[in-house]
Design goal:
The complex is a heterodimer of chains A (127) and B (144).
Chain A: H1 2-13, E1 24-26, E2 37-49, E3 54-66, H2 72-85, E4 95-110, E5 113-126
Parallel strand pairs in A: 1-2
Antiparallel strand pairs in A: 2-3, 3-5, 4-5
Chain B: E1 13-16, E2 19-20, E3 24-29, E4 33-38, E5 49-55, E6 58-64, H1 71-82, E7 89-94, E8 99-103, E9 112-122, E10 130-138, E11 141-143
Antiparallel strand pairs in B: 1-2, 1-7, 3-6, 4-5, 6-10, 7-8, 8-11, 9-10
């Protein structure tokens, strides 16, 4: 799903989230990633079809990381992420975005690192 | 005789003439029914029937609603409004192998279908728009 990855990253660069994160990595961040940073990954891609159309039902997860003492920064990043992607009509080569909806989000803190895991469901129609 | 296999459902299609009812995901046909006429009389212990007329069944097509601008939806509306006898409906079992059901033109009179339900649309906040349409068969469908 290269087309999807390109579309997500292009959208990210076009939003305020890009100036708040040091980077947005695909699937895995390097060990020397600088806080705050993000990772997005394709969790699942389930095909669907009618007699005449092909569809892709994708789950994409964003993981936002912050090492500040309180949750102010991580929550602000979450707000920027929602603004960037909730119900957005993603421009994607070879596909039409049928829907882009936030499915769920979880905030955790492990070893003094805040992590917001936000999952989106993206339904794409093949052109 | 070579072994026969069923056909995968995704190879199906629904056409009226050359116009596809795009977005279709399922079609079903209830089959023809022959009316049976009882002929029992006083004193008969069992009911006996003789075959009467054949009644065509109902076809249901469902799928994703591709908006009213779609040619297939527009044709359904046209045919519904006019009550046309449709003799070129094709319910494909396999488009690849060109196997479909269509009104039987060898019956007397020739069979046809009529659109009986159109614009049956549903929309859900968590899903996609869907449609359902139905046809009534007058006569029989023939597998081709």
């Amino acid at each position: 799903m290269t087309d999807l990855f390109v579309a997500i990253y292009t959208r990210y660069l076009d939003t305020a989230l890009a100036s708040s994160l040091t980077a947005l990595h695909n699937t895995l961040a390097p060990e020397d990633a600088v806080f705050p940073y993000g990772v997005f990954s394709l969790i699942s891609d389930v095909p669907d079809w009618t007699f005449s159309e092909n569809l892709e039902n994708c789950l994409v997860q964003f993981n936002l990381f912050s090492n500040t003492v309180d949750a102010t920064e991580i929550c602000a990043l979450f707000t920027l992420l929602k603004t960037a992607f909730d119900f957005f009509d993603l421009t994607i080569a070879n596909y039409e975005t049928v829907s882009l909806t936030r499915a769920n989000s979880i905030l955790t803190r492990v070893e003094r690192v805040w992590q917001y895991n936000v999952t989106y469901r993206i339904l794409l129609g093949k052109n | 005789m070579a072994k026969l296999y069923p056909k995968a459902g995704y190879k199906g299609k629904v056409l009226i003439g050359a116009v596809e009812i795009a977005g279709s995901a399922t079609w079903s046909y209830g089959g023809s029914v022959r009316t049976m006429l009882p002929t029992d009389e006083f004193g008969d212990e069992i009911v006996t029937d003789i075959p009467g007329q054949i009644t065509g069944g109902e076809i249901t097509v469902t799928g994703n609603y591709l908006m009213s601008q779609d040619a297939g939806q527009q044709l359904l509306k046209t045919r519904f409004d006019s009550g046309d006898q449709i003799k070129d409906l094709k319910l494909y079992i396999s488009e690849t192998d060109v196997i479909y059901l269509t009104p039987d033109n060898t019956t007397i009179p020739a069979s046809y279908v009529t659109v009986t339900n159109y614009d049956n649309v549903a929309h859900d906040k968590s899903g996609v728009g869907t449609f359902t349409c139905t046809f009534k068969v007058s006569g029989k469908l023939l597998p081709v």
